[in-house]
Each structure stands twice: as structure tokens, then as C-alpha cells.
Amino acid sequence: MKTFEQIILLLVSGQGLLLSIALLSSILKKNYSNFFLGIITTIVTLEILNTWAIRASYHSIENSFPFWVLGSYLSFPPALWFFLKFNTRPTFQLKSKHYLLFAPAFIEIIVELFSFYYNKLMRANYSLIENSVWFTLTEIVPVIAMIFVLVIFAKELNRLNNRLKKNSNAKNKFLQISKLYIFFSIFSLLTIFWILITIFNVQLFTFIEVTLLLFLFMLGYIGYFKPSFFDIPKILKNEIIREKFSQYDDEKELKRLKNIFENEKIFKQKKLSLKDVSTHLNLPERYVSSIIKAYHNTTFTSFVNSFRVADVIQRIKDPKESNKTLIGIAMESGFNSKSSFNSIFKATTGKNPSSFLKR
């Protein structure tokens, strides 16, 4: 049974290391959200690997490397805070000074490594954790910091919930931030266990092991089958662009956009492009695209086609248009060909044009 447990711990640790490397390497693409999540998974992985090391008596091996000191708990709160920032405030800018939050963790690792090799060389048996000041700085302080970060996490979730409620166009509203709820629940549970063990000396190591194992297994499984899970919530993606155009009034520009489509019927222009509409409104293309995506939850092309299909349906019901063919009406509504009209009409209404006429 003991050997089986050690195998499970090693397998999950291996998966965790691969996942951590993948997440940490995302910094090359400036995906900071995944990078800081990678720091968290690295700490969790090292904790599980250390559990294996204890059970396998690895610590007593003469030339063992103290990998466990690399998983400083002091790096957990800032990593979670940055992960939260990049998932809830997409315009957040990482600055050099922010990395100073990891300085305490770096110092702890250096001191721990020095202590480990000093004991090896001098045949000493000094334990830093038995020093009350060191214990407070490396065990109590991270717990307090985690509580603080989780309070901020809860406030951000509440803010996003309120925004989703107001956004009637948001698709699969709360599924968009389900990832954040999952992480918040897991980290809250781990922090509760952490408090009980560190402050109240309650023996919950088995519960922590199971929680960490499930956490890594879940992330590994999701990372393989649904990597988009690690993307920032869709509702926030457009803010990155729209923040650059804060000088524009969304409500005012949406009314102008609505006017040129509903009253001026600009959609009837063949091969209408985003550039054409943007030029007509005297607005940047990226801004027009972002407000269509944010407020209508669709792409520019689909937005244009929805007006064309609606115009065709309205006109084929009009007795004054009875002398025209269906394709003729479609061409006048802005479609370029019979095939594109048929496919777009079916995609929009769920029926072929001919079937729709027979209703």
C-alpha cells in the first residue's frame, strides 16, 4: 500500500511538473496570468513531491538535493494576487517593482539552502523552523497574506457578477467566470486547512494531500482537453482594446452604429467591410469591432449578415416585392452570391430559404 501511494505521488508530481513548465513558459508569450498560475502549481507540485520524499526517506540520502525549499509559501499570496489581477483587470500593467513582492520568498529560499548545506558540512542539526521568528515570517505571514488576497478575490468575483447581470448580451454569463470560482473555492479550502494546521496545530495533512492531488490532477486534465480554460474571461477581453479608446462614449457610438444599419441600411452595400463602416462613422476599426463584440456578442461579419437576412425576410413578406425573385431580393440586400445567401440564411434562421417560403 505504501509503495502504491508513493507511485501515485510521483505520477501526480510528474504531471504537475509538466503542467508547471508549460504554464511558466507562457511568459515568453507575455501571458502573465498563466505564468503566475505556473508559480502556484510549482509550489503545489513541490509540496506533493516532498510528501513522496518523506515517505520514501529521500531526505536521509547523503547527496539528496533539498528541492522542497524552492516551494516557498511566501510566493503563494503574491502569485495568486497577480493571477487574480490579470484575470479580472485585463488592462493591469506588470511593472518591475511588482517583482519585489517575491523578494521575501527569494530570501527564504537562499537562507534555507544555506542552512541545509551548513548542516551537511558542519554535521550540525540546526532547524530554522524551530526559531519562533522564522516560523512566524515563513508560516504565519503567508497565511495572513492569503486571507487578505482571498478577500480581494471575493470582492472581484462580486464585481464581475454585477457586471454580468447588467450585460444582457453576455453569452453563458456565469460560465465565463466559472474558472475563477473554482480557483477561489480551492484556494479558500487550502487556506482554511493551512490556518488549522499552522495556527491551531490541527492534524489535517491527509486532507491537504488529497486536495492538492485533486487540484493538480484537475488542472492537468483540463489543460490537456480544454486549454482555453486558462484564458481570461471573455467578458473582459474587449476591455483591453476598449480601454485604449476611453475617449469615446459607447452608448452614443452604438446609437450611431444602429442608425446607419437600420435607417441608412449600409448593410446593402456589397462587400461591406469593417473599414467601410469605421470610415463612415469616423471611428477606429478596432473600436467598432470591440463594441459590436461587447454589446452584441458577435463578430462584425455576423452582425452585418443579421441585418441582411432580416431585410430579406421583411421584403419577401411585402406584397410590393412579389414581382422579384428571392435571389434578386437577396442581392439587393447585400449578399454577393446565391450560395453565400443560402448558407448564411440557413445558419441564421435554421431553415433553407425555400423551406422558409413554404411556411
From TrEMBL:
<dbReference type="InterPro" id="IPR009057">
    <property type="entry name" value="Homeodomain-like_sf"/>
</dbReference>
<feature type="transmembrane region" description="Helical">
    <location>
        <begin position="203"/>
        <end position="224"/>
    </location>
</feature>
<keyword id="KW-0238">DNA-binding</keyword>
<dbReference type="GO" id="GO:0043565">
    <property type="term" value="F:sequence-specific DNA binding"/>
</dbReference>
<keyword id="KW-0805">Transcription regulation</keyword>
<feature type="transmembrane region" description="Helical">
    <location>
        <begin position="174"/>
        <end position="197"/>
    </location>
</feature>
<protein>
    <recommendedName>
        <fullName>HTH araC/xylS-type domain-containing protein</fullName>
    </recommendedName>
</protein>
<dbReference type="InterPro" id="IPR018060">
    <property type="entry name" value="HTH_AraC"/>
</dbReference>
<feature type="domain" description="HTH araC/xylS-type">
    <location>
        <begin position="251"/>
        <end position="359"/>
    </location>
</feature>
<keyword id="KW-1133">Transmembrane helix</keyword>
<dbReference type="InterPro" id="IPR018062">
    <property type="entry name" value="HTH_AraC-typ_CS"/>
</dbReference>
<keyword id="KW-0804">Transcription</keyword>
<feature type="transmembrane region" description="Helical">
    <location>
        <begin position="133"/>
        <end position="153"/>
    </location>
</feature>
<dbReference type="GO" id="GO:0003700">
    <property type="term" value="F:DNA-binding transcription factor activity"/>
</dbReference>
<keyword id="KW-0812">Transmembrane</keyword>
<feature type="transmembrane region" description="Helical">
    <location>
        <begin position="98"/>
        <end position="118"/>
    </location>
</feature>
<keyword id="KW-0472">Membrane</keyword>
<feature type="transmembrane region" description="Helical">
    <location>
        <begin position="6"/>
        <end position="28"/>
    </location>
</feature>
<feature type="transmembrane region" description="Helical">
    <location>
        <begin position="35"/>
        <end position="53"/>
    </location>
</feature>
<dbReference type="Pfam" id="PF12833">
    <property type="entry name" value="HTH_18"/>
</dbReference>
<feature type="transmembrane region" description="Helical">
    <location>
        <begin position="65"/>
        <end position="86"/>
    </location>
</feature>
